[in-house]
Amino acid sequence: MSRLNSSRREFLSQVGRGMFVASVGSALAIDMGLTPAFAAEEPASRISFGAMDGLVDLLQSTPVEKLLPKVVEKIKAGTTLKDFTAAAALANARAFGGEDYIGFHTLMALGPALSMSAQMGSHPSAALPVLKVLYRNTEQIQKAGKATSDTIKPVQVVASSLPSGANSAEALREAVHRGDRAAAEQLLAMSVSHSPADGFNDLLPTVDESTDVHRVVLMHRAWDMLSIVGQENALSMLRQSLGYCLKNEKYAVQYAGDVRKTLPRVMDQFTLDSRECGTKDADAKWVLEMVNTLFTATPQQGAEAVAAAIVDGINPLRIAEAISLTANQLVLRDAGRTGKQVQPGKPEGSVHGDSIGVHASDSAHAWRHIALSANTRNKNAALVLAGYQVALDRTERGGDFQTWKNRPLEEDVAKIDNTEKCHLLGELKRAVGANNQGLACAVVAKYGQAGHSEGNVFHMLREYAISQDGALHAEKYFKTTSDDFANTSKDLRWRHLVALARVTASEFGREAAGHHEACELLGST
């Protein structure tokens, strides 16, 4: 076997463990249980994050009722919101490992919350979005009994070769199929030791085996967090996605059998494993035609339509734009919760939280960002799966979206006869306060048609995303719609802001835990 093709087992056997530690860096070595001083010994019982340990431990072990005063005190003393966000992500990863429902939703909210804070500049209340999610993070860690008990431990890598004829991505996927956590974690650690990008790309074929929204969005958010926590913590971030896949493999086998057949068939039929994406632009007419195709397609047809667009050389950004606008239709047409869909905090007619439209939009957003970060095979697979999933989402809960009316409704638009900016902003505030989803949609649509700038609307809706509970989705969906608006053509982008207005009106009236205390501590009440 050539040196170029030597297995990772041979790589480890050819160099000392001390050299291996030097090659991957001390922080990653600590995460893998390979500290330079004790490389030959058993790994530590707890993952260490070096200089971040103090903040991580504070956020993981402090009783939630004492948390915010300590955090605000440190912020005033100079600790940055980015540092707190990074520490919260690391505490979350160590505590939950991608296996706690509220836990991984909180991880998904951290990056968007920091982005919202950055948009607020030097305003005294700029810390509120981050404080809200820090509170939720620590609260769930405490409730789950994870203050000092961790889900993920340091990985001790042993010299083990890949199965004969298999590459690392295939071996990782097979380990998940077998439920072999130890092997899967070692394979991922080895990939990450080569580079975080290798770990990301080796894990994606496993993530691809189900279009479960949490599986998809967690992968995107875990990878996206590297810009905040640093590349040296890539393994801890990606292990969350791996943990989710391991825990849910039996569920995925039962419910995702079709996608496990469709993706390889489409990839082979359209020769997408090595096909580079094109740069051909597409106008609004093409985008709307693709939206109509995806909105009337079966999941298999949706996958094939996207694959055909890739073969035709359409810019992947335009393909992703069409997919996001299709998901947006599920928000704007949704009849709202009825019957057994109604839950505490999610009344009849509501569309916030885990509604099909919010989930579809967040999934489409995640697939786009995965595609932009991945290698050729995984880029094409992400786009194909985005087309598959948005078509599946239209039908999986039994909603008749094709016959339900698209918002804003004509009768709501007819109620608005004054298109002056200040008047419309006042009407939007009134609509949200009354949970009037229809009026909120109509006001924002009119605001855009009148040529007013979107900034004031985003500002108002951001304030609600910060103050309201949002059923675990407020920050994430705000980020989704903000990005989708920015990446959609001028003639179509206001659809995303109309959808955000609807979801905001739906969620209003349930203040987020810790929000009032945070406002008092910051003096922003």
What does the model show?
Helix content is 65%, strand content 0%. It is mostly helical and 525 residues long. The protein folds into four domains: 8-27 and 154-253, no CATH class; 50-143; 256-395, no CATH class; 410-507, Up-down Bundle (Zinc Finger, Delta Prime, domain 3). The protein is globular, with a radius of gyration of 23 Å. Mean pLDDT is 91; it is low at 1-27 and 34-42.
Question: How many runs of DSSP E, i.e. beta strands?
Answer: 0
Which radius of gyration do the C-alpha atoms yield? 23 Å
Distance between the termini: 68 Å
State the order of secondary-structure elements, H for helix, E for strand: HHHHHHHHHHHHHHHHHHHHHHHHHHHH
Number of domains: 4
Helix content: 55-70%
- Unreliable spans are 1-27, 34-42
Share of β-strand residues = under 5%
- By DSSP (H or I, 4+ residues per run), the number of helices equals 28
Category by helix and strand content: mainly alpha
The 3D shape can be described as globular
Task: Write a brief structural summary.
Helices cover 65% and strands 0% of the residues. The protein is mainly alpha-helical.
Task: Write a concise keyword list for the protein shown above.
525 residues; 65% helix; globular; disordered N terminus; 28 helices; mainly alpha
